[in-house]
Amino acid sequence: MTAAQQDFRQDFLQACRDAIGIAHFLTADADTAGYLTDQRGRYTGRALAVLRPGSTEEVATVVKLCARHLVPIVPQGGNTGLVLGSVPDTSGKAVVLSLTRLNRIRAVDPVNNTMTVEAGCILQNIQQAAAAQQRLFPLSLAAEGSCTIGGNLSTNAGGTAVLRYGNTRELCLGLEVVTAEGEIMSSLRGLRKDNTGYDLRDLFIGAEGTLGIITAAVVKLFPQPKAQVTALAALRTPDHALRLLSLAQAQCGAALTGFELMSDFCMQLVAKHFPPHRAPFDRLHPQYVLLELSDSESEVHASEMFEAVIGLALEQELIDDAVIASSIAQSKALWQLRELISMAQAHEGKNIKHDISVPISRIGEFIRVTDVLVQQASPGCRMVTFGHLGDGNLHYNVSPPPGIKDTDFILEQPAINRAVHDSVDKFGGSISAEHGLGALKREEILRYKSPVELRLMRAIKQALDPHALMNPGKVL
Amino acid sequence: MTAAQQDFRQDFLQACRDAIGIAHFLTADADTAGYLTDQRGRYTGRALAVLRPGSTEEVATVVKLCARHLVPIVPQGGNTGLVLGSVPDTSGKAVVLSLTRLNRIRAVDPVNNTMTVEAGCILQNIQQAAAAQQRLFPLSLAAEGSCTIGGNLSTNAGGTAVLRYGNTRELCLGLEVVTAEGEIMSSLRGLRKDNTGYDLRDLFIGAEGTLGIITAAVVKLFPQPKAQVTALAALRTPDHALRLLSLAQAQCGAALTGFELMSDFCMQLVAKHFPPHRAPFDRLHPQYVLLELSDSESEVHASEMFEAVIGLALEQELIDDAVIASSIAQSKALWQLRELISMAQAHEGKNIKHDISVPISRIGEFIRVTDVLVQQASPGCRMVTFGHLGDGNLHYNVSPPPGIKDTDFILEQPAINRAVHDSVDKFGGSISAEHGLGALKREEILRYKSPVELRLMRAIKQALDPHALMNPGKVL
Question: Contacts of residue A197 in chain B, CB cutoff 8 Å?
């Protein structure tokens, strides 16, 4: 770097510091560390500085400075992503732009069923602000205590209520975005219908910060259900689970808000690592389905609906056994079985995760075919198959055979990933259902995305971020 | 035009004829007339030819020919649009590319709740194919007997079931598109979750054919409700209607699938022009709301829910009277009151239509304020206010004062439009809620869309259609 270049960089850093205040301009290792390593601790990057602007205007000022000095920007929310989308690379050339200080709830409109929130709002705080107005913000996922809505929007997060309420994309009506040029696009409209041009909103949603920086959003709220009731069904195969899904949807319509598949091995791992948690049946069953009903009438009505569905399912021999939770505590205990799977799997040793989706109708066949392919790739490995069956989204994870060292098992990862992702592709599925591409799957997607789609994506990137400064090395 | 240019054009036309067959290459006035005039008969354009390809490959071939010869393309579905989006201008330089021969339903997957349809499928045929599998395709609008799904997608059509099921955008999972370069983008994935890059799907949806040509789509299906029950409530003001909406949503949740506001003057026009249709109450009321419940249980259950809501609404003095339809015939009769308004208004003389939306919570105030503004712009005119209140979408139409000639009244259109649209803008609304921009509102939107949004839209247009051949003069 020449002296002139060094001066130019110092000018840039000085201008950033002036723009956002020295307290929010971080360069000391102790201050920046948490922003440079991903949540699972697999990767640590470097940065010129970590910038924590306190308003949309400050974000715009910083982005303009970056554009002028050609400094790459890595936007970051709660940094809870799983695909290395929110940490910088190791070049040290980029700044991390943390949105966490933009954490105001700007407005709640219970009649319009909308809330205007800044990007750095923690998801759980949004849920609670909605509940305080007798409204539901349905987005719900494991990281909700620390992830931010800006990150949820940028990755189009999924979670456990997609079956009824859709992905984050479906929960957003309007956005405020700072473009790659540092302009502020204020489209914070709380409208259910607006057909006045291209859908810029959905282009920024799911773009993982590579086209611009989401600084605020208008999100949808819903009436709070009067009751939520949970049941656990024991059954033989994923195909039986599919037939149960069709039955439950026909009987319950939109009241069916959760439908999660868990294999027996998942439940065994939970029972082993988190006693006394276990599936509440006399004997083992090959598969389990967790169902949730959200009812606008009453708990009694929800339970009656469940009893009718379970009765029909037993009669049609779709399921072999079932329990309906009769209290909130019981409901929570059933959900915990589902939520403990990831941790139980971690306790069991290294594991290889896949966040995949296929058409719901093909899930049974997909599992049968792919289980064989994975065994060929890694003989003796154990499948930890669970997930949002109602959305066609499986966490199709692989644990090593007993007694194999993690370091040996991890060598098999490329072959296992290839087997799973090639199979997903053959079934018309997606290799990233809800986590995004980030840096982790950026190369992998080139194998599966058509040249036309890649060309269009690159054309859009070039049009909206011509200097390629927005979250470089992610997605594309 | 030089001789060389004429030859070039003749080569182009010959190549198109060869590509799609002479029977589908239309140039005679008698053959092309229906493709050149808009549905309401307000505008007639000209075209080099009307091309009716029979497959996606033929569409791609034609688009490649157009790209090579720099011939503009006007894609057309059922040509039922209301904003001059699907007819060519009068230059005669473009070809009309009709998608109506691409009318196959390629696949129905009732377990995945999806259907793969070609762009030229008539909406009603899709509804029927879904019903044949005990599934619901919920998109429903006045033109459903002749509009095509390709047009619905290109305009992101709304209709009467948006409250529960969303706009066309929300009903689509995957697209097949012929790009402006004539490539085929095959993204016909029937996935509920897929986070592998930019949302190209939603960019083409609602782009009114200006970025590429939608040739097929995977659409979402839903379980068929077991019962649909309709009620009509009589009440005092739009604000009372809003409070009724909140009550009904809290009580019925997703079962509330329709919520339509109609002013007394609307009902008077229907009663005058279509006797014996009239609101079924002893006396006149200032406003009426049509409510629809779709129930996954039974008609009895739906009626009980309605009785509970109506009882509470009477108790809270939100409504003054109500009837619940006790048969399908009665339900239909209530819906007819709503559907006859447009025709009744047409019988009453020339009228000026506005397809606007505002945040639902602001509808009452919007109507009060804007009614005054419109009276100032056109003293004595009569408001025909009705629409999808549950979506914040009003057809806020204006009929002339009695005795005024149509030709005189139409002179006031610019002043009336300006008053209404400026007011919509002040209320954070949209000047085109469900009809799109087409050629009709292309200039108008420049007044209301921010420079940043317009710049981004133009950048995307330039990136995806660099020669500006796709539906020129529409949207942008």
Answer: 206, 437, 445, 449, 453, 457, 475-476
